[in-house]
Design a protein that fits this description.
Blueprint: E1 8-11, H1 12-17, H2 19-25, E2 30-34, E3 37-42, H3 45-67
Parallel strand pairs: 1-2
Antiparallel strand pairs: 2-3
Length: 80
């Protein structure tokens, strides 16, 4: 059985009937089920924005790690 990575779930048929109600009831991610298997997740905009920011931070951290072995270059502030 697949694990559901949300505290709430809704059938896809119920979602089709009234998507606005599903969004309003959601206080976090909602698993969308088709035949009792998760096929998608409905995520509030604020949570999605936080996820995107976190992913961007992780990408930037990888760049920093990759460049940490490089020789630093001295520059004057005025040159920037």
């Amino acid at each position: 059985m697949e694990s559901i990575l949300a505290r709430a779930s809704i059938g896809i048929s119920e979602l089709k009937l009234n998507p606005t109600a599903a969004i309003e009831r959601a206080h976090g991610p909602v698993a969308i089920l088709n035949r009792n298997k998760p096929v998608a997740y409905l995520v509030p905009a604020s949570a999605w924005e936080a996820i995107c920011e976190r992913l961007e931070d992780l990408e930037l951290a990888e760049i920093v790690k990759a460049r940490s072995g490089e020789t630093p270059v001295s520059v004057k502030f005025e040159d920037l």
